[in-house]
Design brief:
The structure holds two protein chains of two kinds.
Chain A lengths: L8 E6 L11 E7 L2 E8 L7 H6 L3 H8 L7 H15 L6 H30 L3 H21 L8 E2 L2 E2 L7 H24 L2 H7 L7 H7 L4 H5 L6 H4 L20 H24 L19 E9 L2 E9 L5 E7 L1 H6 L2 H5 L4 H11 L3 H5 L1
Antiparallel strand pairs in A: 1-2, 2-3, 4-5, 6-7, 7-8
Helix pairs in contact in A: 2-3, 3-4, 4-5, 4-11, 4-14, 5-6, 6-11
Chain B lengths: L1 H7 L2 H12 L26 E3 L15 H5 L5 E7 L6 E9 L8 H5 L5 E3 L14 E2 L1 H6 L9
Antiparallel strand pairs in B: 1-4, 2-3, 3-5
The chains are: A alpha+beta, B alpha+beta.
Chain lengths: 368, 151
């Protein structure tokens, strides 16, 4: 580490074992007293070369690996990958499969936001909400387990549709969750949003205005908290999202507190979508008619979906063989993390913890 | 004035505390006492693998077609078989399943045409050694035997 000519400057390593960097992120902080002068993210501790692995697997075999990038939103990752390969093959999943996909991805959005809320509150110093959010998340994970046999790395969808038919009592279980969940969100609001310590702690921390968001390519709740109603589910609907009625929650000031409110509202909207989707799941096949050995024609396809953390894109180049020629992932966490330096400049060290929490990063996705 | 009283009487903090106290009700406890109280995992749970035998004849159901080994993304299944001269079929000799590399995606189970290979509901598959996670045919056929610690 180079010595700085400024004697007041202190270089501090935050992470990779810091508990509130949410994984193995190392941030080199340049400090002037308690003030952050600049930050530098050092990533790659969790690099597994997922994109390279894809080149050595068949299209079907690669599907379980995408679950392990953003492991808190494995279902969303699976959906993005399946949609990309389906676009490459010019096939569409049947309506029944699409409806089930929407239900599961929205439940996954709730689960992901719940874990974000719990850990973010824990970083700030509110310990209680973590237990409540994990309790509700457990209900979602039970639905996943009953449906596809795994809780976290679900591998729920297959290229062309679904592998598993709905289990007996799926609708009841999902409806029961939807009935009790909005009251729980109100409870979190009572615990945190109504709490003056929480509000004053987060207001004005890590402000990111709309123009800066666009310059960095920041998407998801962070962009919407800055007042831009950009949601890929509305802007370019996929998997039948155009049938459902929901709002895109936005706020105006783009600080940490607004991002908290946007995510809470998103959970409420997700419940709305799930309710509509469960009420009329179409009957019919769950798998499109596709060849057993998947060999997409020569070409390339890019599909992006609205993952819980932002725009999740898959770009696949096919050379007509059973393996992808090249696969590129556009992970939301990685792009959103780039705005950290902008947000943390001039903030206090304690605010850096809040800012990392509010980006909602998963290092499995940042490093891939 | 109302706002001032709210702030002065710490009402917003008390509301939060009230949520905490509401959860002291013992009926709301959802904690499972794990080793003594086992969670009931779902029917479709993808856990430890098992190689099924025919329930009556006790002969293996596996027809050594190698489809599971081909489907596996991690190439961790090795099927060994010999051609039976009489029946003109392949007889299963060895079957190795490396659990240390398995990610329980279920692709082998889906590929099996005769339901011989199955991912069971057992989830306690920890081992003290890496070798202990490489299961041979005997271990796979016996299936998992979860330890019972206490009644």
């Amino acid at each position: 580490m180079t010595t700085s000519p400024d004697a007041n400057e202190l270089v501090l390593n935050m992470g990779p074992q810091h508990p509130s960097t949410h994984g193995v992120l190392r941030i080199v902080l340049k400090l002037d007293g308690e003030r952050v002068k600049s930050t530098e993210c050092i990533i790659g501790y969790l690099h597994r070369g997922v994109e390279k692995i894809a080149e050595n697997r068949t299209y079907v075999q690669f599907a379980p690996y995408v679950d392990r990038m953003d492991y808190l939103a494995a279902v969303s990752n699976g959906l993005g990958y399946c949609l990309a390969v389906e676009k490459l093959m010019n096939s569409v999943a049947p309506p029944r499969a699409q409806a089930v996909r929407v239900i599961l991805t929205e439940l996954n959005r709730i689960a992901s936001h719940l874990l974000w809320l719990g850990t973010h509150a824990l970083d700030i110093g509110a310990i209680t909400p973590l237990f409540y959010t994990l309790r509700e998340r457990e209900e979602v994970l039970k639905i996943f387990e009953n449906y596809c046999g795994a809780r976290l790395t679900t591998h729920a969808f297959r290229i062309g549709g679904l592998q598993y038919e709905l289990y007996e009592g799926f609708e009841q279980q999902v409806n029961a969750f939807c009935d009790q969940f909005p009251a729980k969100v109100d409870e979190y609001e009572e615990l945190l949003g109504g709490n003056r310590i929480w509000r004053e702690r987060l207001r004005g921390v890590g402000v990111l205005d709309a123009a800066t968001c666009k310059r960095y390519g920041v998407t998801g709740p962070m962009l919407r908290a800055a007042g831009v109603p950009w949601d890929l589910r509305k802007a370019q609907p996929y998997s039948g999202y155009e049938q459902y009625e929901f709002e895109v929650p936005t706020r105006s000031s783009g600080d940490t507190l607004d991002r908290y409110f946007v995510r809470l509202d998103e959970m409420r909207q997700s419940v709305r979508i799930v309710r509509q989707a469960v009420a009329n799941i179409p009957t019919g096949p769950i798998m499109a008619k596709i060849a057993k050995v998947i060999k997409p024609p020569v070409g390339e396809a890019y599909v992006s979906i609205e993952a819980p953390k932002g725009e999740l894109g898959y770009f696949i180049v096919s050379d007509g063989s059973t393996h992808p020629y090249r696969l590129r992932v556009r992970p939301p966490s990685f792009v959103n993390l780039q705005a950290l330096d902008h947000m943390a400049k001039g903030a206090l060290v304690a605010d850096v913890v809040a800012i990392i929490g509010t980006i909602d990063i998963v290092l499995g996705e940042v490093d891939r | 004035m109302k706002q001032f009283l709210r702030r002065f009487l710490l009402l917003d903090l008390l509301e939060g505390l009230w949520v905490t106290f509401r959860h002291q009700d013992t009926r709301l406890i959802t904690t499972e006492q794990y080793p003594s109280q086992r969670p009931a995992v779902s029917e479709r749970y993808r856990g430890a693998p098992r190689l099924n035998n025919h329930p009556e004849t006790n002969e293996t159901l596996c027809i050594s077609c190698n489809l599971c080994a081909v489907a596996c993304p991690e190439n961790l299944i090795v099927v060994g078989s010999v051609r039976n001269a009489e029946t003109k079929r392949k007889d299963l000799v060895t079957f190795t399943y490396d659990l240390s590399r398995c990610m329980f995606c279920g692709l082998c189970e889906d590929a099996c045409p005769v339901d011989a290979l199955e991912l069971t509901q057992d989830f306690e598959i920890a081992s003290y050694t890496r070798e202990g996670l490489i299961w041979d045919r005997q271990a796979l056929e016996e299936g998992p035997r979860p330890t019972q610690y206490r009644q």
